[in-house]
């Protein structure tokens, strides 16, 4: 599928294409297909890798938080977990919504400290890279 998308984007836009994936890192095979184009990855909310980052950042993770983005890994009780421990991924930045309009039953996605619960399960490794491993049960 990625090959089809990249080929169509290159045809339409003169050889330059952006390939966007969400909620996981690319497989090594898929990454190899695009590594000669632009090996950077970027998440819209401020996580990602840049072309000058080590290749393993894009190969093994979704990258590191950029300036203005806070990532927190928490257990089921909302306690912050240490690096390498898996838990729910929470984000806080100016790009993350601050709430729902009106009364919504989805208010539980917001932590008291301004973080939003993503429903993703992951961990931060010893280098600060975020790894996603699945979804939190019940999300």
From TrEMBL:
Spans annotated as Disordered: 30-69
Domain AMP-dependent synthetase/ligase: from-to ranges: 41-100
Signal peptide: none
Alphabetical list of Pfam families matching this protein: AMP-binding
InterPro entries: AMP-dep_synth/lig_dom (IPR000873), ANL_N_sf (IPR042099)
PANTHER family for the chain: LONG-CHAIN-FATTY-ACID--COA LIGASE
Protein name: AMP-binding protein
Organism: Nonomuraea marmarensis
């Amino acid at each position: 599928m990625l090959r089809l998308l990249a080929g169509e984007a290159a045809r339409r836009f003169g050889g330059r294409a952006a390939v966007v994936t969400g909620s996981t890192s690319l497989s090594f095979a898929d990454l190899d297909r695009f590594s000669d184009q632009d090996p950077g990855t970027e998440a819209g909310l401020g996580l990602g890798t840049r072309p000058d980052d080590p290749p393993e950042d894009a190969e093994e993770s979704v990258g590191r938080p950029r300036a203005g983005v806070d990532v927190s890994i928490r257990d089921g009780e909302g306690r912050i977990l240490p690096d390498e421990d898996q838990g729910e991924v929470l984000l806080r930045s100016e790009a993350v919504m601050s709430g729902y309009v009106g009364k919504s039953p989805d208010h539980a996605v917001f932590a008291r400290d301004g973080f939003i619960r993503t429903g993703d399960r992951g961990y931060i490794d010893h280098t600060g890279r975020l790894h996603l491993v699945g979804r939190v049960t019940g999300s």
